[in-house]
Amino acid sequence: MKKTLVALAALAVTGAFAQSSVTISGQLDAGLGVTQTAFSTSATSIGTQYGASRLRFVGTEDMGGGMKTNFLLEMQPNMNSGATSASLFNRGAWLGLSGGWGEFRLGRQGTTTIGVVCTIDQSGCYGSFNGGGILFSGFSTTAGALGAGAGNWFAANPSRGVPVTVALGAAGQAGTGLSVPSTAGDVTRVVGGITYLTPNFGGFTGQLQYAMGGLPTPASAADGATVGLQLAYGNGPIWVGLGYSTVNGYAASPASGTLTTLGGKYDFGVAAVALGYQKEGASANGGAGLLFTDATAYAVTVMGNMGAFKPYIKFGNRTVSGGAAGSITAAQVVNIGTTYALSKRTDIYADYAVDTATQGAVAGTSNPSNFALGIRHTF
Question: Cβ atoms within 10 A of the Cβ of 294, count?
Fold first, then answer.
């Protein structure tokens, strides 16, 4: 249940703040997880399994005439230690204005692609490896063995082909995988971003986004900058969406990248079926070594509607080519599971995923898998 804190002190001074409010809401996730890595090791854990726990503060001020001031601050508490990440509001921190003309947001926020990907996912990008749905696979990369894996199935930010100098660690140690973000954001967000969201025109919506480069002292304002676009249409059982973004390189890692995502969903009532396709490209401007220059991914998801039960199955793959990695199947994932609503705000879940992609020429690798059983509560 969302709880609203009204600015009572301001009310005592003037009635002009009567429409100001701050809403506290969030989600807590705790469960048992068993993970088998690509390098034949396994681990059992208690904590967040199905999707990140979060605590958010959402504020609005109605200024009259349809104009509003809006903000969001969202953090990610750890259900084991109680700590948050080093960046307190790592999940979002933006301020903006809205009206009949649409909405502007300034700050740290999701990319124009993430909404398209998570609608295709149907679980809101929950479940599977790392609690990211179709965003992540079970792969990990080892230095010196570029065919060993990739860090994602679908992406939400161009990875710029993952320059080799960025992706690889010391010999024999796990690297960062192929989910290295643009310099203007992280895997699913941008920083220093400005986003315009259109009003809803009979089911049609759009977004435009620009994010400045994330470097402390960029050579130019365009270094590492991200430009994004989203177009979507939803009406009754039908939804279609398009996300597109580009990112520039910077002096130390000049590769640039593009990311195009197209998806659709149809709800038959007893079940909804969604299809997604993604194309990623990278250019080694200035001769930077890349793990890949071209990547293609697809996903098919089916979400059942059986009262309190919401069973699902998701499958698809990602292939990469060009660059140091050569041509490999970077991810080939099957994910099955279900949620069961104990109440309007509390679910239990069971989720299993396996990445069956070829592991490359690395001795001792196995197909990574993940099983999670737990409880999720929203408030």
Answer: 15
Domain residue ranges of the chain, discontinuous segments joined by +: 3-378
User: Minimal CA–CA distance to 94: which of 102, 85, 104, 86?
Assistant: 104
DSSP 198: P
Q: Which amino acid is at 326?
A: G
CATH topology of domain 3-378: Porin (2.40.160)
Task: Name the pTM for this structure.
Answer: 0.87
3-class DSSP state of 10: helix
Run of H or E residues at 166: helix 164-167
How far is Cα 59 from Cα 143, in angstroms, rounded to an integer?
45
Alpha-carbon distances, residue 96 vs 91, 194, 206, 292, 326 (angstroms): 17, 9, 17, 37, 44
Residue whose entry in the numeric block shows the structure tokens 């890595």: 37
pLDDT digits (tens, 9 = 90+) for 272-319: 999 999 999 999 765 567 878 999 999 999 999 999 999 999 999 998
- Assign 101 to helix, strand or coil: coil
Tokens describing residue 149: 């894996």
Q: Look up tokens 């960046």; give the residue.
A: 87
Give the residue among 213, 233, 215 at the shortest CA–CA distance from 224.
Answer: 213
Identify the burial level of 273 via C-beta atoms within 10 angstroms of its C-beta, where 0-12 means exposed, 13-18 middle and 19 or more buried.
middle
